[in-house]
Amino acid sequence: MKSRPCRVESSVQAELLMDRAWTRLLGAFMDEARGIAEAARSLGVSTEWLYRRVRRLERAGLLAAVEVRPRAGRAVRLYRATAGAYFVPFSVVSPAQVGRQNRAQHLELFESAIHRTFSRPPFDTQGWGFVTERSAGGDVSFRIMRDDGLRWADLGAQAPVMVSGWHLVHLSPQDALALQADLRALHERYSTCRGEPYLLGIFLADTENVPGLEHAPASTEPER
């Protein structure tokens, strides 16, 4: 039977565990004991860079040296996560705090990737821009298009891999639950693939009575 997650009450541990950058580092030591050099190779970082972060995880009690392996020259110290899973109560770190921190970090990375995309072919040539128009759902949004009407998605294999945009949709409670399940299933479908890294963000939230958001009309009837 699978053991229960280790309950975390330390704010220091919680801060690290709720930061995706740190949990990815910790994940390199979760399945087996590993030396820093081996883990650095798997993560694609330098040994020196990872060593400093391993020391912080060790001081926080999330990593422990479990073995010293003899080797010609300097012995190799093997580290392993102190648990296979951790439970952080909302009383230690609120979900709002966790979400805001992680979204901010990944949004910055996403914006950098998008900026790089638009500085490369085909977008580095003249004629590309945005078309702002009302969508079939009634919201006003924009699409990337060339001035001759060609959409970037029509480029086929030449099109950069990119999906970006916020959309307001009007759903029944049943449809919202179905969409939630579809999005989760879509993520699960590709989460075990192995290849080049792509950043995927999936967002869905009930915005009823949330101030600061202009809602698109639920009706799709044309304006008179």
Quick recap:
With 224 residues, the chain is of the alpha+beta class. Helices cover 35% and strands 15% of the residues.
Write up what this structure looks like.
This protein has 224 residues and is of the alpha+beta class. It contains 6 helices and 7 strands. The strands form 3 sheets. Strands 2-4-3 form a 3-stranded antiparallel β-sheet. A two-stranded parallel ribbon has the order 1-5. A hairpin with a 5-residue loop joins strand 6 (128-134) and strand 7 (140-146). Helix 3 (36-43) crosses helix 4 (47-59). The protein is globular, with a radius of gyration of 23 Å. It starts with 5 loop residues before the first strand and ends in a 33-residue tail after the last helix. The model is unreliable at 220-224 (pLDDT under 50).
Q: Which structural traits does this protein have?
A:
224 residues, three-stranded antiparallel β-sheet, two-stranded parallel sheet, alpha+beta, 6 helices
